[in-house]
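User: Hey, my collaborator sent me this sequence without any context and asked if I could get a structure. I don't really work with proteins. Can you help?
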Amino acid sequence: MEDFKTIKVTKGIKSLAIDNPTAYPLIGMGSQGAVFKLSDEKCVKIYTDSIQAKMEAEALKAGQHFPFFPKLFDTGPNYIVMEYFNAPTLKEYLRNSTYIPESITRKLLTILREMKKAKFTMLDAPLRHIFVLENEVLKVVDHVNAFKRIHPVPLKLLRDLNIILLKDSFLSRVKQLEPETYQLWDNYFKDNRFDYKNIPVTSGGSGKGVKVESSVTQPLIGKGHQGAVYRIAEDQCVKIYGKPEHCKQEKDVLLSNQHLSFIPKVHETGSNYVRMEYLLGPNLNQYLKKQSHLSEDITRRLLNILLTMKEAGFKQIDAPLRHIFVTNQGFKLVDHVYSFSREQDRPIELFQNLHERGFLDTFLEHVNKIDPYTHAQWTKTPIPLVKEEDMIGIEFNQNQPKSKRPKKRKKMRDQKK
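Assistant: No problem. I've predicted the 3D structure and written it out in C-alpha cell form, which is a compact way to encode the shape of the chain:
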C-alpha cells in the first residue's frame, strides 16, 4: 500500500500547492488542507499547518460520540484519517428544491443543539460541509474552528440557504418546531443588523490578500489583494476595500465608464465601498475548463473588450479569465483598481491564462484573422509565458524567505502582475 505521508500540501499564492506522488485521488481542497481518498471507507486530510491539524483532531475526538461526526481512524502531525462519504452534500441534495423538508430541518436543529451541549463554540456549518447519506442521515465535516470561532447562530448555514432561496423556508420551520431557538436567532440578528458600509475589511499587507471577519453573515463571493466582495441581494453585491486609495482608483474607473457594456453597473459608492450589480454566471476561466476548443466568437468578444479599453483611455490593457463573467447580458469585466494607473499595452495575464488552457495559439490565430494590426503589435516581441509546472514552484517560493528563493527567470520580468 502506498504511503499517503509522502503527499505534500503547502500554501500557494492563490491556492494550495500539492505534490502527490501516490495514486490516491484528490477529492477536496480548502483553505486549511487537501483531502485524498484512501479507500471506500477512508480518506485523509493533509494540512498545511500542524496547528490546524491538531485543532481538528481535538474537535473530532471530542465529537466521536455524535452520530453526525465522521469516524476518526488515525491522526498525525499534519494529517487526519477519517471516514469517507460517497454521498452528496446538503447543497447538492437541496438543489432545485422549492422548500426544505421538515425532516432535514429537525436533524439540523438536533446537530446544532448537540454541539452546543458539548461546548462547541462554532454552532454552524456551511451546506458543502454537510453530507446526506442514505435515509437522510447527515454527517458534518471540517471542524478546525469548532472551539475557536464563536458562532452562536448558524451564520454560514443561513447564508448558504439564503443563496439557494431556502432561508425563509428553513426559518419558518424552525419557528414552528423550536420557537425559542427562532427567537434567539432573531434577537441576534436584530442586535447585529447588517450594514455593508461598516463591514470590517483590512489590508493584509504587501503581497497578501485582504482580511475579513468570519462572523459577517452575508455571502463572501470573492476576495483578493484590494478588497472583498459580498452578495447583499439577488441582483447586487458590494466590494469593500482594505485601503481607501484602492476604492477611489476603482471607483473612478467604474463611474467614468458606465456607458461601456462590459463594465458592471454601479448603484452606490462610499469612501471604502462600491455597491454594484451582482454578475450571475460563471467566470470565463470556469467556462473554458469545460470547452474542448476556443470559439472565434469568444475571441471577438475578448478582443472587443481590450480594444475598447484602449480607446477609452485605460492604461492597463488586460482581461484575466477569472475577471470576466459570462452573463445573459454578455461579458462583464471586474477588478479595475489599476486600469488607469498601470502602464501595460499587452494583455499578458490573459495570454498566460489562455496558454494554461491550451487556447493561446487559437486565440492569436483568430486575432490575426480579425485584426492583423493588433496581432502584429502583440507579437512583435515574444510573449512572456510561464509553464504550469513552474507556476507551482513560483507559488511555493513566494512563501520562502527571500534568501532561499531562486532568482526569477528573465522571461518573467515583462509581466506586470
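In plain terms: Confidence is low (pLDDT under 50) at residues 391-417. You can pass these C-alpha cells on to your collaborator as they are.
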